User: What shape does this take?
Amino acid sequence: MKYRQLLLALLLVFALFLRAQQKTTDSSGFAHFDCGITQTKQKLDKKFFASTPPVELRVSNEKHTYTIFQFGKRKNKIYLYIRILADDICLKKEKNVDVFFKNGEIITLENEYPLNCNAFFARQLSRKELQKIKGNDIRLIKIYTYKKNYEMDISEVQNQDIHLYIDCLSAYKIKKSDEVRLKKKDRK
Assistant: This one.
């Protein structure tokens, strides 16, 4: 009797195992590791570029104002782009962005983009700056403008996204578009 019960239990477990193997899984139940890097056929200063999804930051000292914090890559260089989503904001020339870390350190970044009143900041990050951002959690980002300084608090999730995007872009290889390859083939 016990032998039959044991055999029946084993058959039942085996049948459930086979059924589980045939069942399709729902991908929404799993965490995805997706960098979300996009590269279009467009060029920036005659060079191909790729970018990460933007991290949207809410300005903490201004109602209903947001900024876009995004990384991009051109050649082998990683760039930081920040844009305040508001009208008529002119960035200061000498000192544009301070990044405050949770460990108390601060780095100051100057805008490499021409002086503008479109609230657009662009900077090629050095290896030292990338290591500092990657190795520490950002607490606050402060952008200096002529009229007002804008402060954005950074959450733990946003820090994780920032670290992920730096890792993704560091490993990403810029691809040449299909159009460029076709033109080279046509020349032969």
Remarks:
- Helices lie at 2-22, 127-135, 156-171, 178-187.
